[in-house]
Amino acid sequence: MPESDSPLFAVENLHVRPVDAAEILHGVDLSVGAGELHAVMGPNGSGKSTLAGTLLGSPEFEVTEGHILFKGDDVTDWDPDVRAKHGMFLAFQYPQEIPGVSVINFLRQALSARKGIDLSVLELRLSIMEWMERLEMDPSFADRYLNEGFSGGEKKRNEILQMAILEPDLAILDETDSGLDIDALRVVAKGVREVRAERPEMGVVLITHYQRLLDELEPDRVHILIDGRIVQSGGPELATRVETEGYEAWR
Questions:
Q1: Is 17's pLDDT higher than 90?
Q2: pTM, whole model, 2 decimals?
Q3: Most C-beta atoms within 10 A of its C-beta, which of 119, 182, 189, 203?
Q4: Helices 152-166 and 182-198 sit at what angle, rounded to 10 degrees?
Q5: Is the torsion defined by CA of 109, 136, 177, 210 positive or negative?
């Protein structure tokens, strides 16, 4: 596990509520070092997706107390696009369809915004072909409208393709295993492993219900989120305990 004097990413005493609603996160603390993969596990309604949305600055949520720190900067009040340009990436649980915008044009605009690199469509096409092959994506998907008519597995592979091309410093994967059969899950997990191999300093926060994706990705740390609080943290063995005992052990 890489060592660092200060974490790549941290949340400190994070309290969050949806706009005009009751508080959901009640003082979450989490620290991720460069190159580490941390899993956040919890049942439905525990606050996992609220945490993911808050980390990327969703306007649906309000931070009422605490801080989000990234690469030494307090990004708590930064807009989502500024966080993304700074190197934060979110793979959505339910990726949105964008009719009229092809995958390759979306990637071209996103890469330009993230790194100031203005590749031609041809240059970008050449650069993404290898990743599409690794993710078992048909090359024709590059010209299809973003996520329109994609299966659940295709949408998730497309999210990992974006992560590979945009080269973030921190990737937050919000229930990337949701809706995937075992074959699609293994392809997606293989893609995550290969992105991490090429970017060994990238930190990953993986939000999930189940152990099956963790069997493929082997987290450094596992955190149990129950009712808006992290109630226990530990090594990969904690995920095994969830699988055998369920979440009732922490309620």
A1: yes
A2: 0.90
A3: 203
A4: 0
A5: negative
